[in-house]
Amino acid sequence: MSDVIKANIEVHTKLAEVYNSDEPHFRPENKAKVSRRLGEMKARVKGEKLLDLGCGTGFVIDLARAHFASITGVDITPAMLARVNITGHDIELHNCQVEALPFEDETFFAASAYSFLDHLEDQKAMLTEALRVLKPGGELYIDLVPNRFYWKALKEEEHFEETEVSSFVQRERTMVTENDKTVEKEYGINADVFRKAEPAKEADGVDPYSFRALAIDAGFAECEINFDWFLGNAKVLHQQSADDADVVNRYLQECLPVSKSMYKYVWFVLKKAN
Asked: What percent of the chain is helix, strand and coil (3-state, nearest 5)?
């Protein structure tokens, strides 16, 4: 077992009890967004079996109930798996590594990986295994991936040397540069261990274009890149309105790729050839 996997088990064992209450992606507006994306994938693949990679406490599993008849979750942390609600639906859980999935070839119509890619030491190994267990025409939906363009922009010291920045920009910068210290203070998780559990963030996030090339090299026929959650999104959403946030987002989307460093996250849809 690698040091990265050991670190992830240690970190997520300690976070298991508070994960559902403390992680912002459990907020209603985000759950609605992810549920919509799962539903859109289900409509495209026209199959009932979903594999959720790095399922944690069941964030995606709970949302996928409305879309898929059969859901399989895999995770390396028993404490997280113990909190997945498996009642009232066809749900199966496996405590295993995504780099060596215990499933036959072409088992699933769709797969998901939410808030997970940044915890992987070997992204290509995950992609290869996901491709293997997907049926022809199947899709892999990957979301909440730290966008390298955003991470590097907020870490760039010279941007902040002579400019007074707003409180929300400074807060976001602190989250990017000092989140390990915050987690150590709030949850008692050693900062070095926490950093080791997130190798992609240690590398200043994921370059979406390099990841697309990696996915194609692994054998996927397509890899769609989408940028999400602009700098200040929460401020506009909660202090103004969802409509205002949508207006800002539509404008920044029209400005891509110039505006790519304004987005905190990136999400992907990968397709296996028919």
From this structure: 50, 20, 30
Buried/exposed 32-66: b ≥16 CB within 10 Å, e otherwise: ebbbebbeebbeebebebbbbbbbbbbbbbbbbbe
Q: Which helix (H) or strand (E) holds 242?
A: helix 242-254
Cα 200 to Cα 184: distance, rounded to the nearest angstrom: 19
Position 97 confidence tier, pLDDT thresholds 50, 70, 90: very high
Residues 204, 155 contacting (CB under 8 angstroms): yes
Contacts of range 89-92, beta carbons closer than 8 Å, 24 or more positions apart: 89/65, 91/61
pTM of the predicted protein model: 0.95
What kind and span of H or E run contains 142? strand 134-146
Q: Which amino acid is at 81?
A: L
- What angle in degrees, to the nearest 10, is found between the helix axes of 208-218 and 123-133? 50
Q: Average pLDDT over the chain, rounded to whole? A: 95
The C-alpha angle 225, 260, 37, rounded to 5 degrees, equals 35
**Among positive and negative, which fits the CA dihedral 53, 57, 63, 65?**
positive
User: What distances in angstroms separate CA 255 from CA 210, 224, 226, 229, one per listed residue?
Assistant: 21, 18, 13, 14
CA distance 86 to 94: 12
